[in-house]
Each structure stands twice: as C-alpha cells, then as structure tokens.
C-alpha cells in the first residue's frame, strides 16, 4: 500500500523505480497477480494500485483484470468512496483499457444520490473525462453528473481544468444539456476566471461548445 501511494503521488519515486535495472515494478506486478494478495486488498488499496500502475504507464491486462475483479465484489464496491472511484476511472482511461463490467458498476455506484453528492469537483471532472476517453456512454451517469453540477453552486468550485475536461467529456460522448452548458459559460465569464485557463483548456472548451452546437456569444467574444 505504501509503495502504491508513493508511486501515485511522487514523480521522482516513479522515475527511480522505472529505471531498467530496478526490480520494483516487476516485483509489484508479480505480487498483484497473486490471488492471495488480491484477495486481501481493501477497495482503496486496489484503486490506489491501479492508479499507481497507470501513472507508471504499466499496461498489464492480468493486473487490470485481477484488480477489476476485486473491485467488482459487492462489499468492496459499496465501500468505495468518491476519490477511489475517480482514481479507478482515471487509471483505466490513462492506460486505455476499458473494462465494461467495472465501468458499468462504477457508473451505478456514482449515480447513487448519497455518493454523487460527496464527489469533489476534481472527482466529477476526472470521471467524466475517463468515460469520454474510453468512449463509454452511460446515460444515467451523465444525467446524474449534470444534475449535480447544476445544484447548489457546485460549478463555482470548478477550476479551469475541471471545466475544460467536463465540457470536452460531454461533447466527446455527444451528451447535450443546454442548461449545463449555459452554466459552464456563466462560470467561465465570472470575473477574471478566464485568465486562469491554459491555451489547451480554452481550445478544448471551445471545441466542446462547437461540437455540441451550443453558441454563446458572450463567451466566444471573451475568449
């Protein structure tokens, strides 16, 4: 668990153990492939391991399948928090390895009212980005996300990357929600918020609006 945490959070540690002569990653892969080790993992540990492997660009079908099967256990899935769900979705997308059964289970977990209300803005944006990156369209998930973002000024907590990834995700999946896009544009036009956007984030957001056929004159003039 500690190694996975370091792999996920420390780029210098990842570079060190990814050296050709370092045996840490191969050893981790062997350990995670052990049924006894997998069977002892808690949900957060499994999500963290998957996240760590994706950070190291390790694309291992055996590892992904093993961790996915662990996460699919009902008792494990029901105890995953928002951060663990977002980490899992992001990890699968990062290594471009969709796992349909796991993605469906994660979407179902997210659409639970108690869960989606607990999601941070970063978790929401990462989940939308991941499903879009993998080309997985789940109508219930996207509808739940839209409702969440339109409730209680949640969008006010979003940063530039969160806005860009969310707009890009909705557009990539072809999910039209005029109220949400209007709220996104309103958030972008708030005070000096646009000045925090990087060029790529502006480009992705403009592309998203255009792809969805949403025209907002004030926003286009501002960017």
UniProtKB/TrEMBL annotation:
This is RNA-editing substrate-binding complex 6 protein domain-containing protein. It holds the Pfam family RESC6. GO terms for cellular component: mitochondrial matrix; ribonucleoprotein granule. InterPro entries: FAST_kinase (IPR050870), RESC6_dom (IPR058917). It comes from Eutreptiella gymnastica. GO terms for biological process: mitochondrial RNA processing; regulation of mitochondrial mRNA stability. Residues 27-220 form the RNA-editing substrate-binding complex 6 protein domain. The lineage of its organism: Eukaryota, Discoba, Euglenozoa, Euglenida, Spirocuta. One of its GO terms (molecular function) is RNA binding.
């Amino acid at each position: 668990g500690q190694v996975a945490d370091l792999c996920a959070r420390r780029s210098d540690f990842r570079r060190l153990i990814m050296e050709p002569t370092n045996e840490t990653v191969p050893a981790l892969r062997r350990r995670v492939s052990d049924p006894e080790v997998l069977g002892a993992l808690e949900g957060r540990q499994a999500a963290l391991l998957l996240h760590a492997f994706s950070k190291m660009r390790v694309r291992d079908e055996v590892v992904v399948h093993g961790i996915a099967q662990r996460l699919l256990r009902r008792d494990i899935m029901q105890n995953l928090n928002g951060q663990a769900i977002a980490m899992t979705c992001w990890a699968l997308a990062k290594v471009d390895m969709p796992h349909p059964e796991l993605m469906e289970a994660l979407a179902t977990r997210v659409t639970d009212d108690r869960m989606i209300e607990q999601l941070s803005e970063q978790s929401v944006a990462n989940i939308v980005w991941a499903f879009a990156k993998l080309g997985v369209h789940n109508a219930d998930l996207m509808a739940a996300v839209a409702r969440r973002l339109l409730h209680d000024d949640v969008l006010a907590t979003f940063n530039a990357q969160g806005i860009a990834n969310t707009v890009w995700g909705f557009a990539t999946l072809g999910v039209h929600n005029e109220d949400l896009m209007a709220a996104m544009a309103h958030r972008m036009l708030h005070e000096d918020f646009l000045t925090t956007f990087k060029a790529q984030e502006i480009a992705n957001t403009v592309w998203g609006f255009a792809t969805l056929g949403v025209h907002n004159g004030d926003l286009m003039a501002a960017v």
